[in-house]
From TrEMBL:
Residues 3-77 form the Barstar (barnase inhibitor) domain. It holds the Pfam family Barstar. Transmembrane segments: none annotated. Belongs to the barstar family. It comes from Peptococcus niger. InterPro entries: Barstar, Barstar-like_sf. This is Ribonuclease inhibitor.
Amino acid sequence: MIILDGNEMLNRQELHRYLKKQFHLSEFYGENLDALWDELSARDQLTIVFLHADEAVDALGPYGNALLSLFRELVQENPTVNLMYELPSSIDPARKTC
C-alpha cells in the first residue's frame, strides 16, 4: 500500500520527488506524468491511498487534475490496482469519492 499526502505536493518538482520516493521509482524516472504512467502501469497488486488530494489539486491546478486522471486510468486499465481518495464536490463533482 502506498499512502500519498497531497500536502507534500507543493509544485511539480516536489510532486515528482515525492512520488519517486513513495513509489520507489527507478533512477531513470523522467519526472513527468508520462514517465509515471510507464513506471506504474507495469505494476500489479498496487493500492494507492491519496490523502488530502484536494490540497494537491489546489497547489498543482490542472496538473493535479491530470495526476488524478492518471491514477483513475491506471485503475481502469489494471484490475489489480486500487485507488482511494476523497475530494470536495466543488473540485470533482462527477467523482467525489473513489
